[in-house]
Amino acid sequence: MKEKEVLLTVEGLKKLEEELERYKSVKRRDVAERIKQAIEFGDITENSEYEDAKNEQAWIEGRILTLEKMLRNAKIIDDENIGTDQVTLGSTVVLRDLEFNEQLEYTIVGSVEADPANRKISNESPVGRAIIGKPKGSVVEVTVPAGVLKYEIVDILR
Question: Which domains does the chain show, CATH number per domain?
Answer without folding.
Answer: 6-76 (1.10.287.180), 79-157 (3.10.50.30)
